[in-house]
Amino acid sequence: MNWERLARANTHPLRVSILETLSVDNGRVLSPKELSLALKAPLSTVNYHVTELRESDLVEVVDERQVRGAIEHFYRVVDSEKGPKRQRRRRKAPR
Fold it and tell me: For the chain, which has fewer Cβ within 10 Å, the N-terminal or C-terminal residue?
């Protein structure tokens, strides 16, 4: 366990909620949009905190898909023993 990364993540209650939500049921994969709906928080705020968690290597991008003119990213909590995988795959946008 990297205590410095964990301490940095715990500086904001929303980051703790994001980590808890992604950790449910042995790990979930969610986008910031899905997290914002689950946590009832603004998408821009959730996206900012997910980015901070990603930069701290506490969550990782595991999937992405094209949605109109943007790319939606999907995240999961990093296994503290294995570290981030840095693998990505693309989903096609639903038609």
Answer: C
pTM for this model (two decimals): 0.75
Domain extent, residue 57, equals 3-91
Beta carbons of 4 and 58 less than 8 angstroms apart: no
pLDDT band at 5 (very low <50, low <70, confident <90, very high): low
Number of domains in the chain: 1
- How many other β-carbons are positioned within 10 Å of the β-carbon of residue 15? 21
CATH of residue 34's domain is 1.10.10.10
**CB-neighbour burial class of residue 41 (10 A; exposed 0-12, middle 13-18, buried 19+):** middle
